[in-house]
Amino acid sequence: MRYRGPPQAIRNMVPSLVTQMIVLFKTPRSPPSSATWTSAKAAQIVNNREIRPFELYLFIALVYFIFTYSMSRIAGRFERRLA
User: pTM for the whole thing?
Assistant: First the structure.
């Protein structure tokens, strides 16, 4: 039981842990605990000065995509390694 229980439990928990990590990254919270809040707020401040919303929000979307895609790839590798 000691050798078989924890690896199976970890293997079953990996997808939900990755999902929770991505949700926590994307959910705005009060500063300074959230990178999402600061990036969106910074984009809003820069947009008020530069009036270039497309480039700013495209950059934030790319950062979110890179983070979430890399997290899902890392989780997939981890799952394959445990299988």
Answer: 0.60
